[in-house]
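Course assignment 3, question 2. Fill in each field.
Student: A.L.
Task: Predict the tertiary structure for the chain below.
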Amino acid sequence: MDIDVNDKITLSDDISYLVVGKTIYDNKTYFFLVDFNNYANIKCCYENSLNHSVIVVDDKKLIQKLLPKFIDSQNKAYIDSLVESMDEN
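Answer field:
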C-alpha cells in the first residue's frame, strides 16, 4: 500500500477521506485525513506495513506531537487549494 498526499482512501467506517498531510515520526509514516463530506471529521493514522492496513491514532499526546509536523510538511496555500478542489467535487 502506497499512500500519498491527495490520495482518496476509505477507512473501516466506510467514509472516504482525502490525505492532506504526511509525515514520518519514530520510523512510522503518519497521515492526516479529512472527510470529503464533513471537513470537521479529521483523522490521524498510520499504515501498518505488516498487513497493509491503516490504523487510526487515538493517542491525544501523539496527535499533539504530529500536528506541527503535518503543518511543517504542508504549505498553507497548498492545503487551501486542496479544500477548494474538494468544494468543486
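Instructor remarks: Residues 60-73 form the longest helix (14 residues). The chain has a mean pLDDT of 86.
Grade: pending
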